[in-house]
Amino acid sequence: MLFHTPGFLLFFIAFLCCYLPVRGSKWGVRVIVVFSSVFYGSWNWRFLPLLWVTILVDFAIGSLLARTESPRRRKQLVAASVVCNLGILGYFKYWNFLIASIGGNAAWVLGLTLGNIILPLGISFYVFQSMSYILDVYRRTQPPLDDIFEFAAFVTFFPHLIAGPIQRIHQLVPQILRPDAITYNRVASGALLFASGMFRKGLGDALSAWHDPVFKAVATSSPVDVTLSVFSFGLQIYLDFSGYSEMAVALARMIGIDLIRNFNAPYLSTSIQEFWRRWHISLSLWLRDYLYISLGGSRHGLPRQIGNLLFTMTVCGLWHGAGWNFALWGLLHGVYLTVNTVFARLTGKWWEQRGPWQIAATLAGVPLTYIAANYAWIYFRLPTLKEAVIANRKIWEYLHNPIRLPSAPPGIIAVYSGPQISDQAIS
Fold it and tell me: Residue 146's CB: how many other CB atoms inside 10 A?
């Protein structure tokens, strides 16, 4: 049930009819849980119990952490949550990737086989969100919740359940319990933001009609088409993801709840570090707070910091998808961040000083960051290293002969000539 479909409109109207009379009460929390469960189950009801396993396990562990003072016991409880959550995520998202990586013969010897596994919708988002609660309770930065419905509402709140943004317990639960007043400005700005998000997503879908045929036949596509398709995909994934995030923020805003902003003009960043402060902000903050800092961050010298950056960004890549191409994309961003960090250490960040240096750094940094971020999408979009090598060769050829104009791939032709083709097919 996508936000921009008629089915969701009917769902949202039904939700408002039940929620508005009890908004801000314990019954309002329960309405959110019920409708969010229906929303998730509408995709595939068989995975609804899996979502609730995460909720029940982490709520119970959070309650146990509140009553446990033994450091060893507390670590065991956190480990149990991590094993449960990452075990579920690992099986559904990475099992077949693991078997394929091991190799057929080796997997057969170990008794491992490929499974007919369907990836549950939004599992990467709600697992990370639920884990953040346990880690916050363990660190004593967040008191445990006493009401399981409050925790379930936190995990399942339908605007952000499928594609984020990833919320923290202190950001969302107080608003669910005490939402802001629904005013004309809230509803109007939310409706405008929803329309903006829908427009972005539609524009992203239109762009994909141009570059998808190029990526499907990268070996036979022209150098100029491959080069432009890389940048087209970079724009499409931004429009698609930020558009859907905007619609999520808009829906919550209209009922008095403010979600974290997930994108902030990332392609205008002056460095890769700034890019990751603007791109998928909720995930970047999660990885920083719960992985990078837990590994030591920058506290143990430059070599250790570089290792932490590379590992964190490789995990970031694998979080997006189960494949070595995603790992390579993340690793490449880790290399970018390493270069950025070393450069900042050597120069003392002189380019951030006001004056001519800052202007020059901005003029150089924005296009360099834009090109670097978009180049990395090659490894995100193409499923194999072989295809990525071919794409690199095509780009190299184009840079040596950038004269030829791009063609119109079959996908974009189908967009404009679809009705005529359909008439011919019928006749």
Answer: 11
